[in-house]
Design a protein that fits this description.
The complex is a heterodimer of chains A (279) and B (186). Chain A is 39% helix and 24% strand. With 279 residues, chain A is α/β, with parallel strands linked by helices. Chain A folds into two domains: 99 residues, no CATH class; 127 residues, no CATH class. In chain A, helix 1 runs parallel beside helix 4. In chain A, 51% of the residues are buried. Chain B has one domain: fumarase (Alpha-Beta Barrel). Chain B starts with a strand and ends with a helix. The chains are: A alpha/beta (279), B alpha/beta (186). The interface between A and B is large, with 48 and 49 residues.
Chain lengths: 279, 186
């Protein structure tokens, strides 16, 4: 049994909040650049060039890439042989508070959804705990902007809707979203589970590298087909028209009930931020 | 599609020239406000009180910046989704608001107000907050400081890049741009 101090988690979360808001994962930058090369529509190419330029300015100046520095989504995988010596939720929130203050990130959280008073330090975070092998603790911070979050949808499809029902629902969701989620987007799709689990599957799908298709070749092929369908919509970067509506599609699937086919689409903008540390 | 360098505040004559798809670079004064500030402006109007900004020919940028580091007027400042301000925009347009900058679709009532009053809706690149910050030379809070990032700010911008999304005739780039691109594939 290894003791992991809560201060180590706080420190990691604070650092990762800042890192994620200033530097995109390399798979995302590579994909934006590849799509920019492929894009033939003038106004679409201009928008993709601005997006690439923004990334460089952010790295040079230390300004966040996007002013919506997000709700802090913190995924923690705890090794079965690790013991955390205190309140993990409090440790995460202290880290978010510190990171958002030190990094001059925007405080975008209201403490109550209807009475809407800003909490002032971007807490509380959305914390997702899971268990894994070993004695280390893996922390991933994924700041999630709400321009794209607001366009996400869950549908309880019928088993008879099948594969086509899923393809139609996902494509229709992207069409309805139009320019709002700041395309080019990354599309996280959850299939199966139940009403709440399917949404988390979709969110977790957004953490997977764009260079890694689903390990199940059936779902890898569905990802490819969906990406083709979405990029045939013509919405384009920023909704101005063009090929590049989506940079990638990631599907996560899980067992479900004989009566159900839950499907969730969690949309992320091109500023697809996540950073990971192992303690 | 044309390129224009435009000095703010806008005039109805300048707005009338612009067509969906045109690129503009804006220089001058605009105001940043988003959800909470719009709600406050609406409450002031309901109470019969004056607005804290000169609304005639004004341009409002739907944005809430990150805190400004040393040497910057504002932090990252990209557009937020404009549709959330649709409930408030027609009233402001009727009072003289001439320009809006944001991202995403507007509803039918906003489009109707744009046409009726000769206003214009621009799109800025969503998610390009650091790039757009470089075009803001000065910023100060003119109302609702307690709203933090959502306070109403006066911004002085130079060559601020945007695209005409809905012009004063009601034409939308979101419809025409997509249709023209798809047509080009045939």
């Amino acid at each position: 049994m290894r003791i992991v101090r809560t201060e180590a988690i706080t420190e990691a979360v604070a650092r990762l909040c800042i890192e994620a808001n200033l530097h995109l994962p390399p798979d995302v930058t590579r994909r934006v650049d590849a799509m920019r090369e492929r894009e033939t529509w003038g106004i679409a190419r201009d928008a993709l060039e601005r997006i690439a330029e923004n990334r460089e300015i952010s790295a040079r100046t230390g300004l966040p890439m996007c002013q919506d520095t997000g709700m802090a989504c913190v995924f923690i995988d705890i090794g079965r042989d690790a013991h955390i010596d205190g309140d993990i939720y409090a440790a995460v929130n202290r880290g978010v508070s510190r990171g958002y203050a030190d990094g001059l990130l925007r405080k975008s959280i209201v403490s109550d959804p209807l009475r809407r008073v800003n909490s002032g330090d971007n807490t509380p975070a959305a914390v997702y705990l899971d268990f894994t092998d070993g004695d280390s603790v893996t922390v991933t911070v994924a700041p999630k902007g709400f321009g794209s979050e607001n366009m996400s949808r869950v549908e309880m499809l019928k088993p008879a809707d099948g594969e086509d029902g899923v393809l139609d629902f996902v494509t229709r969701t992207i069409e309805l979203a139009g320019a709002n989620p700041c395309p080019p987007i990354i599309v996280g799709v959850g299939i199966g589970g139940n009403f709440d689990k399917v949404a988390l599957l979709a969110k977790r799908a957004l953490l997977r590298s764009l260079d890694e298709p689903n390990r199940d070749t059936y779902y890898a092929e569905l990802e490819a087909r969906l990406l083709t369908r979405i990029n045939a919509l013509g919405i384009g970067p920023q909704g101005f028209g063009g090929y590049t509506t989506a940079l990638g599609v990631s599907i996560e699937a899980a067992a479900t009930h004989i009566a159900g086919l839950p499907c969730a689409v969690n949309i992320c903008c091109h500023v697809s931020r996540h950073a990971t540390a192992v303690i | 599609m044309s390129n224009y360098d435009i000095t703010l505040p806008l005039t109805r004559e300048v707005a009338a020239q612009l067509r969906a798809g045109d690129s503009v670079r804006l220089t001058g004064t605009l105001y940043s406000a988003r959800d909470a500030a719009h709600k406050r402006l609406n409450e002031l109007l309901d109470a019969g009180l004056p607005l804290p900004i000169p609304i005639e020919n004004a341009t409002i940028y739907y944005a809430g910046p990150t805190p400004a580091p040393e040497g910057y007027a504002v932090g990252a400042i990209g557009p937020t989704t404009s549709g959330r301000m649709d409930a408030y925009a027609p009233r402001l347009i009727a009072l003289g608001l001439c320009g809006m900058i944001g991202k995403g679709e507007r509803d039918a009532l906003v489009v109707r107000a744009i046409r009726k009053h000769g206003a214009v809706y621009f799109g800025a690149i969503g998610g390009a907050g650091a790039l757009l910050a470089e075009h803001v030379e000065d910023a100060d809070i003119v109302a609702f400081p307690e709203l933090g990032a959502e306070a109403l700010r006066r911004l002085t911008v130079r060559d601020f890049p945007a695209v005409v999304v809905i012009d004063s005739t009601g034409m939308s780039l979101y419809e025409s741009g997509r249709a023209e691109y798809l047509k080009s594939l045939k």
